[in-house]
């Protein structure tokens, strides 16, 4: 019997919890910031034996869903932010969330595994590029001998270092952010979280982050935090 046309059902095995309640400000790629996140398995997958041996790996692959993009119109071309939002490229030549199956792929560092009394095995990771509560479909170990290709061409995606901004974060505002989150937040800001097509030096932007609204302006390559507002729970 031919299997052509048979569609497998993908099950959500876990959800990741991050400090980003919305997509604005989320790192554009995994591994760019040291921000921590936790992965909590769904009840059906909380058997500790399912992750036996995972503690021996430094990094893991996450296959996940661009849940905020589900239901959006799909086009064969998209406009990558790093090209100014005006140049179109093929969807399969980009990492755009607007793709046929809305699947994302991220490599994150496995910091530790916690055996939680209520949630079972919880994975603590760093370098995630997802909003809070993103569904995880699969987890696989990262193999450096097979998965790392330092000589690979990057196409039109220039190295992220080329886009870093200088960040000015006055102490009066920085002191409001928990110390454990400051380095990660600054690394997010220096990557210029604004839409690529926006260059208004007087416009104030705001990133919802860890219960705060971090407001800033960008002028001549310098991002200055101008206000921190605590968000209502």
Identify the overall geometry: globular
Number of strands: 12
Oligomer: single chain
Distinct helical segment count: 3
Walk me through the structure.
There is one protein chain. This protein is mainly β and 233 residues long. The protein is 8% helix and 32% strand. It contains 3 helices and 12 strands. It has helices at 144-147, 171-174, 179-189, and strands at residues 14-17, 36-41, 59-65, 77-78, 89-90, 103-116, 120-126, 134-141, 166-168, 205-209, 212-219, 222-230. It has a 6-stranded antiparallel β-barrel with strand order 1-2-7-6-3-8. Strands 9-12-11-10 form a 4-stranded mixed beta sheet, with helices on one face. The longest helix has 11 residues, at 179-189. The protein is globular, with a radius of gyration of 19 Å. The model has no long low-confidence stretch (mean pLDDT 90).
What is the element layout, followed by pairings?
Layout: E1 14-17, E2 36-41, E3 59-65, E4 77-78, E5 89-90, E6 103-116, E7 120-126, E8 134-141, H1 144-147, E9 166-168, H2 171-174, H3 179-189, E10 205-209, E11 212-219, E12 222-230
Parallel strand pairs: 9-12
Antiparallel strand pairs: 1-2, 1-8, 2-7, 3-6, 3-8, 4-5, 6-7, 10-11, 11-12
Summarize this structure briefly.
The protein has 233 residues and is mostly beta strands. The protein has three helices and twelve strands; from the N terminus they run ββββββββαβααβββ.
């Amino acid at each position: 019997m031919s299997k052509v046309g048979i569609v497998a059902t993908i099950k959500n095995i876990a959800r990741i919890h991050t400090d980003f309640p919305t997509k604005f400000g989320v790192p554009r790629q995994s591994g760019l910031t040291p921000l921590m996140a936790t992965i909590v398995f769904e009840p059906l997958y909380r058997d500790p034996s399912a992750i036996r041996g995972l503690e021996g790996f430094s990094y893991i692959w996450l296959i996940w869903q661009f849940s905020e993009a589900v239901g959006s119109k799909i086009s064969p071309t998209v406009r990558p932010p790093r090209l100014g939002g005006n140049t179109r490229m093929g969807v399969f030549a980009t990492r755009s969330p607007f793709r046929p199956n809305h699947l994302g792929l991220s490599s994150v560092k496995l910091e530790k595994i916690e055996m939680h009394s209520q949630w079972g095995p919880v994975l603590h990771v760093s370098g995630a590029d997802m909003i809070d509560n993103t569904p995880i479909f699969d987890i696989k170990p990262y193999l450096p001998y097979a998965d790392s290709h330092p000589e690979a061409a990057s196409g039109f995606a220039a190295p992220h270092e080329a886009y870093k901004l200088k960040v000015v974060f006055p102490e009066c505002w920085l002191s409001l952010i928990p110390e454990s989150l400051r380095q990660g937040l600054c690394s997010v800001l220096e990557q210029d979280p604004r839409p690529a097509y926006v260059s208004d030096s007087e416009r104030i932007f705001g990133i919802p982050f860890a219960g705060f609204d971090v407001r800033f302006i960008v002028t001549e390559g310098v991002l200055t935090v101008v206000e921190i507002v605590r968000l209502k729970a």
